[in-house]
Amino acid sequence: MKKSYIWLGSAICFVTYLFTLGSFIYKYNDVLSPAELEFPDLAISMRMPQTDFMDHKITHSRFHRPRQDDVDDFDVPVMEYKDYAKPPKPRHDITSGIIQSKQERNKTVQSNGGSGRETLDSAKTDAVLVDKSASVTTTEVSSALQERYDGGHNSPMATPDDGLSKTVYQERSKAATENNNTTQESKKTIHFNVEVYVSKWTLTVKLNGKTIFHEAMNGSDVKFMRKGGLYLLVLHQSKGIVMHSSRYRSFEEAADKDLLRTLKDVQPGRILVLAAMHESFSHLSDELEQYLAKQGSRIIKDMTVGDRWAWVWTKDGRTWGEGSVFSTHEYNFYLQGGALHLNAHPVVKDEHQHCSQWPSDGLWGARRTFCDAYEGYGNLCSCDDPYILPTSRQLSISTKHNIPTVVVASERPLSLHKCLDRLLEINGGNTEDILVVADGQLDGGLMEVERLVRLFGIKFQGHDAGGNNVTMRITRHYKKVFQDGFRVFPLADKLIILEEDLFVASDFYSYFEQLGPLMDRDPTLYCISAWNDLGTVSTASDPTVVLRSETMAGLGWLLTRRIYEEIIVKWPAHDKFADWDMWMRLQDQRRGRECLLPEVPRTAHFGTHGAHLTAYFQSKYFSQYAFNSQSNVTLQGLDRLSPKEYDSYLREMITGGIHLDGGAIDPCKPGLIPANQTIPRILWIMMNERADEYTLSGVLKCLGLWDLDVRGGHKYLWRLRPSGTPLFIIGWPLSPFSELKPGTTNVLRRADPKNLESEPPVYVIKNRSEDDR
C-alpha cells in the first residue's frame, strides 16, 4: 500500500512537471501564439509583452540561433549569432514624460472600469507603449513625442539632422522654391499611401492598397539564412513604380557595405523604404548607422538584436514615417520585437520630365528612359553630374585583334554595371568585342539587365536556364555561355570568360594578349587565368611573375576553341547534377594539363551575394587578395613557362635556396622568414599521398590563405612570396622535387591533437579544433 502511494505521488509530480514545461514552451514560442493588438487610429500593430491589464494573451518572439547541425549543412562558411552578435544597446530614454509607467496605466484602466484597449482608444494616445521594449514613431506621433525626436523642431514629420550637409537635390529644390513659386504651384501634387507590415516571419509593402513586395519565411529559410535581414525598396516619387528592391544579410559581417553603396547611389528625391525582418541588426556597422541618422532616421542608433523596424523617407529629404518595436532580454533569451504596421503618406510634386537638362535624342534619350525606371546606378543617372559613358580603348601593344570577352551574368544589374564600366575604362576594352550572356526571367529581372547592356552598346544574349537546383542551373548556364561566345564571334579562336562580379586590373587585356600565344604552341596548357587562389596581399607582390598550376582557377580566364570543342561534347547532361568548375577540374577533362596564372591577380572579386556566396564569405576570403594596380606590366620569364623549362627553373631555385628546419619552426608564428629577400626559402612538409593534405592545410591557414581545399600547386609544390621573400612549400616524399631535399633537413609535420603520443608534436594549429577542420 505504501509503495502504491509512492508511485501515485511520483506520477503526480511527473505530470505537474510536464504541464509546467508545456506552459513555458507555449509562452516562449511565438509560432504557437502569434496574437496581435491593432490600433487603427495609429496605423500601428505590434506584439507586446504580456501585462496584467490586458485581456489578450500576448507573447514575445524568441531570438533564433541556428543549431550546430544546421550550420554544418552550409556549403560556405557561416557565422552563428552567438559568435558575432552585438551586445544589446542601452536605449535612449525617448519615452520620458510621454508614456505612462505600467503602474500608472493600471490605475487608469481600473479607474475607467474598462480594458486597456478601451482606455487607449478612447484617450486616442498617439504613442502606445506598454514599456521600453517597444517604440513607435509614425506620421501620427503626438507633438510631444515628435519634439523628442526632432530635438525641439515643431514639425509633424521627422526631418534630417541639422548637421546634414547640403546636397545637389536640396540646393536645387531651394533654388526652385525661391525663384519660381508659380512653377511649383503649377505642378501636380501627388499623394501616396505606403503601408509596411513587418514581423519576424513576414514583410509586406503596399502602395495605395496594392501589394508591391511580399516576403515570407519558414524554418528552412532560417536554417540556411535564405531570407531575413534588411530589405530596401526604392519608389519613383512621381509614378510610384518600384525602381529597385534588394535584401541585405545584415546579420553577417560586412553585409551592410553593399546597402550603404546602394543608398549612396540612389538619386536624391526618390522615396525609400527600409524594413527589418527576422534578424537585422546583429552586425550593423557604425558607418551605416551614421549615414541613416544623417538621412533623418531618429531610431536607427537604438536598434539592436531582435528589433523590428520600418522607415519611409525621401532620399536627402524628409521622413514620412518611422516605427520600431524593441526586443527584450528575459530568461537568458533575446525576445524579438513584435509585429509592426506602419502607414506613411508621402506628398510630392509631379516632375514633368526626368533630367530635363539632358539632350533629348539618341543615347541620352535612352539613358533618361532607363534612369527613370531603375535605381542604384550613381553618376550614370545623375541629372546634374552624369559621367560620360566609356568608349573603346585600343591596346598599346601590337596584336592582330583583341580577344573577345564573354561576361557571365544573371539578374544582378548593379554588379554588371560596375563590371562593364571598368572593362570599357581600361586599355583594350571594346564594345564590339564584348558579349553579355545572362540567365534569368526574360520578362522579369533580365529586362533591366538587357536595357543596361544596350546603353553601353554591347551585345546581349538572355535565356532561362530553368530548374530549381541552383548548381545544375549554373552548369547549364555556362554551357550556353560557351556556345553563344563562339557562335557570336565565329572568327575567334579564344575567349575571355569573366563573371559579372569581377573588377579587372588596368593591364587585364594586356596580360591575356601577352600569354595568349603560349596556348597556341603548348599542348600541355589547359587555360590561362587572371586569378591566383594563393595570391593574397601578404603572399603576392610581383606582378611580372607567371606560374604554372594544376588548378583551373577561373575568375577571369581564357578558353580556346580547341578546348571548348573537346569538353562541350561531354558536358554534363541537362538533368545531371554537376558543378561546372569542379567538373572541368577533373582529371577526365584536364588530362594532366595545367593553367597559367599570375602571382598578383588581375581581377578583384566584389560580389556579396550569389548561389555559393555571402557577404561573410566575401569578407573572410576574397577581400584579402592582392590586386595589380600597375599599368602596362611586361610579364617576365615567358620563355621558361613550358613544362621542361619551368621544372628546370624550379630545380635551380630549390638547389640554391635556403632550406628551413621543419623540426624547429612554427608557421603560425610571425617572422617565419625574413622580409624582402631574393634567395628563396624552402619548406619541406609531410605528404605521403595526394589526399595527405593535413599538414599543408594547416600551413596555409597559418599564412592566412585559402584553406577550404588545396589549390594552386604544381607537382605538389606551392610558390608564395610572404613579406616579399620567395617561399617554396614542397610535399615530401610525394613531389618529384623531393630528391632535392638535403639529408639533414627535417620535414615539417603537423601534429594531430588526437594522436600526440604516436606523433611527436612539431606544431599545432591554434584556435582550431579537429572537429572544425
Which of globular, elongated, flat, extended, rod-shaped describes the shape?
globular
Oligomer: single chain
The N- to C-terminal Cα distance equals 59 Å
Count of discrete alpha- or pi-helical segments spanning 4 or more residues: 22
Keywords:
8-stranded mixed sheet, 28% helix, alpha+beta, 773 residues, 6-stranded antiparallel sheet, 19% strand, disordered C terminus, 22 helices, globular
SSE blueprint:
Layout: H1 2-27, E1 37-39, E2 44-46, E3 61-62, H2 68-71, H3 81-84, H4 102-112, H5 116-123, E4 135-137, H6 143-150, H7 168-179, H8 181-186, E5 189-191, E6 194-198, E7 202-207, E8 210-216, H9 219-223, E9 229-235, E10 242-248, H10 256-265, E11 271-277, H11 286-295, E12 308-314, E13 319-325, E14 328-330, E15 333-336, E16 340-344, E17 347-349, H12 362-371, E18 405-409, H13 413-423, E19 434-439, H14 445-455, E20 459-463, H15 470-488, E21 494-499, E22 502-504, H16 508-521, E23 525-529, E24 546-549, E25 557-560, H17 561-567, H18 580-585, H19 587-590, E26 594-598, E27 603-605, H20 615-620, H21 643-655, E28 658-659, E29 681-687, H22 694-702, E30 717-720, E31 727-733
Parallel strand pairs: 18-19, 18-21, 19-20, 23-26, 28-29, 29-31
Antiparallel strand pairs: 1-2, 3-15, 4-13, 5-17, 6-7, 6-16, 7-8, 9-10, 9-11, 11-12, 12-13, 14-15, 21-25, 22-27, 23-25, 24-26, 30-31
Helix pairs in contact: 12-14, 13-14
